[in-house]
Amino acid sequence: MVRQSWRFACVFLLLLGFVGVAQAEMTREEYAIKFRKSSYSVLGWYYGSMHRVIKGINPYDQAAFLRDAERVAFLSKLPKDGFIAGTETGDTKAKPEIWTKTELFKEDNDRLESEAAKLAEVAKGGDFNLIKEQFGKVQKACKTCHDDFVKRKTE
Ligand code: HEC
């Protein structure tokens, strides 16, 4: 009787283990979607931090702003790596056009990368008016791609 319950306990624990492994494992496609969404979230965090300074909610601090601008310049290069084949559908807001209008998607990516790199340059100078103007261009680069390639809630 005692041996029997041990056996049940072992089987039970084994099953629990399998459930754990199944949850931890993702397909490469699911991981790619998770990767690009996470990298956009990290990018959005530093972008938001600069946005609050531009809007006057937080005070302008040259060193802190430069740090955020440099992080956005680097982070803007990452998400595109997550748009691998087979990730057109799934838990994603990406429009399928990303995989057909590849030239336009590349253009939109390049625009963000170059405007973000310029913002990091301008941020070094510390001229707030120039920074504001260049931030507007980064903002526009985000919006352009979102208009082109991100599904709205109603779509
Ligand atoms: C080249 C196109 C492109 C550019 C440029 C772009 N995005 Fe996105 N963004 C996307 C796509 C596509 C998604 C949807 C990803 C998905 O759901 O798989 C997205 C999703 C997001 C998300 C949601 C992430 C999530 O967890 O679902 C945030 C936040 C975001 N972008 C912020 C930004 C910000 C801030 C910028 C500018 C600094 C920016 N994006 C520029 C294409 C772009």
Q: In terms of quaternary structure, what is this?
A: single chain
Q: Could you tell me how far the N terminus lies from the C terminus, measured between alpha carbons in angstroms?
A: 59 Å
Q: Given this structure, which CATH class is correct?
A: Mainly Alpha
Outline: extended
Percent range for helical residues?
A: over 70%
Q: Judging by the overall fold, what is the CATH architecture?
A: Up-down Bundle
Count of DSSP-assigned helices: 5
Q: Find the CATH topology.
A: Four Helix Bundle (Hemerythrin (Met), subunit A)
Mean pLDDT: 91
The poorly predicted ranges are none
Largest sheet: none
Name the CATH superfamily classification: Cytochrome c/b562
Strand content: under 5%
Structurally, the number of domains stands at 1
The helix/strand series, from N terminus to C terminus, equals HHHHH
By DSSP, the count of extended strands is 0
What is shown here, in short?
The chain has 155 residues and is mainly alpha-helical. The chain has helices at residues 2-24, 28-54, 62-75, 102-125, 128-149.
Record the SSE blueprint:
Blueprint lengths: L1 H23 L3 H27 L7 H14 L26 H24 L2 H22 L6
This protein binds heme C.
The site of heme C has 22 residues, from helix 2, helix 4 and helix 5.
What can you see in these coordinates?
The structure is a single chain. With 155 residues, the chain is mainly α. The chain has one domain (27-149): Four Helix Bundle (Hemerythrin (Met), subunit A) (Up-down Bundle). The chain has 5 helices and no strands. Helix 2 (28-54) packs antiparallel against helix 3 (62-75). The longest helix has 27 residues, at 28-54. The N and C termini lie far apart (59 Å). Residues 33, 36-37, 40-41, 43-44, 47, 92-94, 105, 108-109, 112, 138, 141-142, 145-146, 149-150 line the site of heme C.
